[in-house]
Design brief:
Length: 129
C-alpha cells in the first residue's frame, strides 16, 4: 500500500489544482458577464444622450464592481485591476461632464478589459507556458 501513496497523493493534488483552476475560471467568467451586462446597459442611454439614465446604469455597474473588487485582486494581476479602476473613474467623469464621445470610447475600453480577464486567467496550456 505504501508504494501507491506517492502516486495517489500526486494524482489528488493534480485533481485539486485542476478543480480549483476551473472554479476560479467559472467565478471570473460569471462575475465578468454580470458586470458586462450592466456595462452594456449604459451604452443605449449614452447613445441617445439620456444622461440621467446613463448615470443610473453606471451607478448600478459601479456598485457591482465594488462587490467584484473584493475577490478579483486575489485572483488576477493588480495591474489589470488598476486599469479597470482607472477606466471606471474616467467613465464617471465623462458621464458627469456629458461628454458623449469620450464616454463611449472609455466604456468600450472598460468592456474590453473585463472581457479580457477570464480569457487571460483561464487554465490552459497557452497560459501555463
Amino acid at each position: 500500500m505504501k508504494k501507491y501513496a506517492v502516486p495517489i497523493a500526486l494524482f489528488s493534488l493534480l485533481v485539486f489544482l485542476l478543480s480549483f483552476g476551473w472554479g476560479v475560471y467559472i467565478f471570473l467568467e460569471k462575475s465578468a458577464n454580470t458586470f458586462l451586462h450592466l456595462a452594456q446597459e449604459i451604452l443605449n442611454p449614452l447613445k441617445q444622450e439620456e444622461w440621467e439614465k446613463a448615470k443610473e446604469s453606471f451607478a448600478q455597474t459601479e456598485k457591482t464592481w465594488l462587490k467584484i473588487n473584493k475577490y478579483w485582486p486575489m485572483l488576477i494581476n493588480h495591474q489589470e485591476m488598476d486599469r479597470i479602476e482607472e477606466s471606471i473613474s474616467k467613465l464617471k467623469g465623462y458621464l458627469e461632464n456629458k461628454d458623449k464621445t469620450e464616454a463611449q470610447a472609455e466604456l468600450h475600453v472598460l468592456i474590453h478589459y473585463i472581457k479580457h480577464i477570464p480569457k487571460k486567467e483561464a487554465l490552459n496550456l497557452q497560459n501555463i507556458f
